Amino acid sequence: MKKLISLTVSAALLLAPLAYTINAPALNLKVDAVSAASEEAPAATAKPAPKATAKPAPTPKATAKPAATPKATAKPAATPKATAKPAATPKATTAPAATAKPAATTAPAASAKATAKPAATAKPVATATPVTVHKDVYQDGVYVAYGDAYSKGTEGAKVTIKDGKIADIELLRTSPKIIDRNARENYSGVWAAYGLMKDRLMGKTRDGAAAVDAVSGATRTSNGWKLSVDRAFERSLAHQAADATYFNGVHMGVDPEAKYAVFATYEANKLTAVKLYPLSATGDFVDEKTYTAEQTAAIAAITPALLAKGASAQPVAGFEAETKAAVNAFWDAEQNASINNKAAYVDGFYSSYGTARSVGVERADVVIRNGKLVDVKLFRLGSNLIDRGATAYAEVVKANAPMTAKLLANGSYIANYNEKVDGISGATESSHGWNQAVERAFEKALKTPDEGRTFDGKFAGVDNQSKVMLLVDIDADQVTGIKLSLFGADGKLIADDKRTEEQKSLVDKLTAGLLASGVQAPDIAGQEALSAAAKAALTDALTNASKVQGTYKDGTFTAYGDAYDKGTNKADVTLRNGKIVNVALSRVGMNMVDLGKAAYAEVQKAIPVLTASFLAAGTREGAQDVDAVSGATSSSNALKAAVDRAYGKAEVTETDKAAYFDGIFIGASVDKTVNVMVTTKYNVPVTMAVYYLDDKGKVRYNLTDDELLVKYEIENTSNGKGLHKYGYRAAAFGANDAQKAISAKAVEAIKAALESAGK
Fold first, then answer.
1. d(CA 327, CA 333)
2. Contact indicator for 64, 118 with CB cutoff of 8 Å
3. How far apart are CA 121 and CA 463, in angstroms?
4. 480-518 residues labelled b (16+ CB within 10 A) or e (exposed)
5. Going by DSSP bridges, is the β-strand pair 568-576/555-560 parallel, antiparallel, or unpaired?
């Protein structure tokens, strides 16, 4: 009999991996060896991937081993499983049934006699063969998933899957707050990897993506992206494996207020480890050496509660607020770990408007992750729909920070908003407008969009040259009312009772035409320019009311054309709905100060002409078709390049996720005495030239030995083909105090130039 039992157990153990091979979708990650020098932090990200699917199926193993009584005592670890299960409570909607089933396997622990029965239980597992995975049918859609976390953040991928292939992909490299970083803020080895990995992954199936080679010098990050892509495919499966709840590995979460980050480790659907990290005001991990006594005590008290109860952990006495933040961070980590993530929203950036009035409107730019608000910026726009910033009403300016904090603490918009309770005193109307804008941004993010193309309500629209403003009432995708106002020469709206008879007649005709025919309204004879402006304002209002997120962010973006040894050309471009609504052009000297009337006469003449032309063109493509001004051709072309680069900075999803624009850029030290000119090729800085300036911003040539030494060091440490020695994390140098002081200023100038070149 003992022999029979022994053979049965052996057979069960042999069959278990076979059953897994047949039934579970394989990850097939091709893991490249990670060299110690490939990136800054230790690797170990890609390895958990194979485990991800390797552990779920061994339920038979669990039943095969009860023979050892120690396991029976190990089974009470199944009681922690009951405690680990609450960790899944937020996930309860996901698949509690899957976790409930393993509980049945606890039965063998009841007695050693039950050991004979595992053979019987092993056979039904073979019956699980129907899980022939339904041929791995992947549902079309947009899926966001993250790789394993480590001290710098994590990798992620926003993957559009169509017909089982990658139709589009945005690669993410996040900060500790799990918000996508600007490419140049990452390790330099990652800069080129974005484009290379995107090209390699586009159009691939799941298996094809897993077989893609990592980019040399960015191996860990490449494998993090591959793991993210594989998890996105797993989430898109039409039929999830019944016994798979969590991805194996280390998953990261942050509470909406960014007080804590949690690293949660899952193995075989069990929470096996939790680490809790406080975050600084800048969103970085606080150095453990600098923890306060209170932070140390909070971490020691809260971590065991999270490990035992997960998102169901109760407030720890004395650390109630900290526990709440930590639980929210754990919940976020659990959602990132969850295979069947049920978030109703697509992670990403969204922007929307509140109810408009003649005096202006509120706007909110938000970042959503796992259905939670994790970043928000609030704006108050004037009647021309341009951000008023600090010039808005004083009470509105004061209300911005507390309303931002209130929304982040809520992790969303405030449902059933109440002005007395939820508004900020002195700015209740703006508070409501901001809350409404955030609510609409969430609606834009819905995976399954609500019916209708536009929101209901009152929306403002202004033509890009601020001639006409409309307040448009929209109900069920229909324009039900329009109030049209004209701007005066002073840039302010002309009050109804201040209009001339001619203006009143014109307003009535324009309004009637727009109500009857919309943007197809015929022009009014002799008023073609205003007719066009009115139709442009209607288009703007309808775009502001749209439930679809636009291509470009609204706001003012500063960019530069190519520089030379006399200075550069600068453009401050204000965009709304992808249209140029304001542009300020200037010619700056080597000290980066506007030359004004000291600029060449031809450039001074060209600036107002180009300003009008860019506004008339209105779009990114139109701006590039603007004719250069005779006598200022090079400056005209440089300013066109600056406008295009401003658009590049405004892209919601970067078409070319590079660290830097290619070109020539300058920057000056804080005291304006040192200028560095940086040339970028292949989206990285390759050469640098150092200039020393006098108090008028002119280049001087009588240099000291120390100045010459610093100049020589910076200019001669590059072959012009690869990343310059000082193009990444430049630091001061020198053999004496004078050299160190000069090089410190040169480094300031380098950083300023790289900021000008940055995307």
1. 10
2. yes
3. 72
4. eebebbbbeeeeebbeeeebeeeeeebbebbbebbbeee
5. antiparallel
Question: pLDDT tens for residues 41-95?
Answer: 443 333 334 433 333 333 333 333 333 333 333 333 333 333 333 333 333 333 3
Q: Give the residue-averaged pLDDT of 553-568.
A: 97
**Residues 21, 50 contacting (CB under 8 angstroms):** no
Q: What is the pLDDT of residue 342?
A: 85
The residues that bridge with 651 in the sheet, in sequence order, are 552
How buried is residue 659: exposed, middle or buried, by Cβ count under 10 Å (0-12/13-18/19+)?
A: buried
Torsion angle of C-alpha atoms 120, 125, 126, 132, degrees rounded to 10: 170
Cα angle 394, 400, 405 (rounded to 5 degrees) comes to 150
Beta bridge partners of 584: 572
Q: How far apart are CA 752 and CA 759, in angstroms?
A: 13
Read off the amino acid at residue 625.
D
Encode pLDDT of 165-213 as tens digits: 999 999 999 999 999 999 999 999 999 999 999 999 999 999 999 999 9
Would you call 93 helix, strand, or coil by DSSP? helix
Measured CA to CA, the distance from residue 6 to residue 19 in angstroms comes to 20
pTM (two decimals)? 0.81
Whether 232 contacts 245, CB under 8 Å: no
